[in-house]
Amino acid sequence: xxxxxxxxxxxxxxxxxxxxxxxxxxxxxxxxxxxxxxxxxxxxxxxxxxxxxxxxxxxxxxxxxxxxxxxxxxxxxxxxxxxxxxxxxxxxxxxxxxxxxxxxxxxxxxxxxxxxxxxxxxxxxxxxxxxxxxxxxxxxxxxx
Length: 144
Prior knowledge:
three-stranded antiparallel beta sheet; mainly alpha
């Protein structure tokens, strides 16, 4: 027999799964080609917040190995969403930045995600919204 917290964990997993599916469905409509996978979206979001970032910074932030980042940046470069440049002051390193198409993609992605969040929050009272955001942030920002 499951304990109270075990039952709640199952309910939470289901709710997160439903939210995740809603985001995936709408995110698939962004762009003009094949939908991006979640890792590629995270690469673009990081590059948007950290222009001229290094692949090692990106891998560390996302918690993946360098070969995974290399594959992701190869895909995104081929799709015209990310550019690689060698800085003049360090010709051995490569800086990653969004292309104009990448900037447009990120802008649309953030708008779609924000619209989803607004739709979710509209279901709650102003007091519930504040509490929900506080609790959700507490969980999301906790290191495991």
